[in-house]
């Protein structure tokens, strides 16, 4: 193994260790004492682990940047992880609570954001950034490399934590993100945010959620009851990277039912998040499908897609609906049959550029 490969592996292992720590510390500062028997329940720790600083919030740790890198590297040896590198002149505010979940079964449950922006005191448009992971796994650290680079181009970038399905099913994640948008407006003076130019991006499940936030501008049904209700949760632009746009197409319904059969009756991750099968929870599946909620208030959207056709489903229909309201959209295709392309070089820089160019176009300085 040459020195460069050893260096890359060392960085990857370090990131993996950091990701592990985020699951229990960095992401969620919720510490509890076990209910009487001195043990703690955590999916990544032994059942009899008794350190008092263990996060009780349930975690699915199956999706991390490093785990995905190892998998992708087997068939694409040329890929490299996009690493977090804070550009010169960019300042970071990290682990900032944006809300506290009332009546959480996990104690004082804070949800956190990171913030990256130029260190110049000027106001800039904001971009909230939503990680993927099948609505079950992943964490906001996966958005940091992209957030840091986009911030250097004059944006306040905000990777957001939200509740995943092991903690709470739909609509918790949507309501968290709507709250995060309102929080950004409420704290605009503190972090130099132009409240008239707030956007949201997301990858995979995060792309779906970003689209749902942007298509449901003004929808009381999707708003939730989170904090800062005196502020709007509307966004002015969306970037969707391989996020699904509808759950209720027949192909997806059939695939989910086939997966339930293969799992001997257990629900796959999408159905867990949607609280069950389509046949039993039609209203939830429909409410969570961005394609069904396009209105004149919906935001312009940029699609950045791989060649995987499942992430194209509903895209043309959504564009037709947006066109009817004269709402702008654009498509960029990554010529690779690889879903998590945004995490890796050689595609990372293109994704950053597509995002910046779209936001510059749709959020011009007034």
Give the proportion of residues in helices.
25-40%
The Rg value, from CA coordinates, equals 20 Å
SSE succession: HHEEEEHEHHEHEHHHEHEEH
Can you count the beta strands?
Answer: 10
Walk across the major sheet and give the strand order: 2-3-5-4-6-7-8-9
Dominant shape: globular
Uncertain runs are: 16-55
Give the N-to-C terminal Cα separation.
Answer: 54 Å
Question: What is the averaged pLDDT score?
Answer: 88
Which class of secondary structure composition applies to the elements? alpha/beta
Strand content: 15-25%
Question: What do you see in this structure?
Answer:
The chain is an alpha/beta fold and 366 residues long. The chain is 33% helix and 17% strand. The protein contains eleven helices and ten strands. The chain has helices at residues 3-26, 65-75, 144-151, 172-186, 188-191, 205-215, 250-262, 269-273, 282-287, 315-324, 348-362; strands at residues 80-81, 90-101, 109-118, 124-130, 156-160, 193-203, 237-241, 301-305, 329-333, 344-345. Helix 10 (315-324) links the parallel strand 8 (301-305) and strand 9 (329-333). Helix 4 (172-186) crosses helix 6. It is globular. The chain starts with a helix and ends with a helix. The model is unreliable at 16-55 (pLDDT under 50).
Give structural attributes.
single chain, 11 helices, 8-stranded mixed sheet, alpha/beta, two-stranded antiparallel sheet, 366 residues
């Amino acid at each position: 193994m040459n020195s460069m490969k050893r260096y890359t592996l060392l960085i990857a292992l370090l990131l993996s260790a950091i990701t592990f720590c985020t699951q229990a510390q960095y992401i969620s500062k919720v510490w509890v004492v076990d209910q009487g028997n001195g043990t703690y329940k955590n999916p990544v720790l032994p059942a009899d682990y008794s350190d008092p600083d263990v996060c009780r919030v349930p975690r699915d740790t199956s999706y991390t940047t490093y785990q995905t890198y190892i998998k992708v590297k087997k068939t694409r040896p040329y890929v490299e992880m996009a690493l977090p590198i804070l550009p010169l002149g960019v300042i970071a505010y990290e682990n900032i609570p944006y809300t506290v979940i009332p009546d959480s079964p996990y104690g004082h449950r804070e949800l956190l954001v990171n913030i990256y922006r130029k260190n110049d005191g000027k106001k800039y448009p904001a971009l909230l950034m939503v990680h993927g992971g099948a609505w079950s796994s992943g964490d906001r650290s996966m958005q940091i490399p992209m957030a840091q680079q986009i911030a250097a181009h004059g944006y306040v970038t905000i990777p957001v934590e939200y509740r995943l399905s092991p903690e709470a099913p739909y609509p918790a994640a949507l309501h968290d993100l709507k709250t995060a948008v309102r929080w950004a407006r409420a704290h605009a003076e503190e972090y130099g945010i132009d409240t008239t130019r707030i956007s949201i991006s997301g990858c995979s499940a995060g792309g779906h959620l970003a689209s749902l936030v942007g298509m449901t501008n003004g929808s009381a049904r999707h708003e939730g009851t989170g904090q800062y209700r005196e502020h709007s949760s509307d966004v002015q632009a969306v970037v969707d990277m391989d996020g699904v746009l509808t759950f209720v197409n027949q192909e997806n319904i059939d695939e989910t039912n086939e997966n339930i059969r293969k799992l001997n009756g257990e629900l796959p991750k999408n159905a867990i998040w949607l609280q069950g099968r389509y046949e039993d929870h039609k209203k939830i599946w429909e409410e969570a499908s961005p394609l069904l909620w396009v209105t004149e208030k919906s935001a312009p959207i940029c699609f950045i897609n791989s060649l995987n056709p499942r992430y194209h489903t509903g895209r043309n229909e959504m564009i037709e609906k947006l066109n009817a309201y004269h709402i702008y959209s654009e498509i960029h295709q990554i010529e690779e049959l690889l879903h998590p392309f945004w995490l890796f070089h050689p595609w990372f820089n293109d994704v950053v550029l597509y995002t910046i160019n779209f936001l510059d176009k749709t959020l011009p300085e007034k």
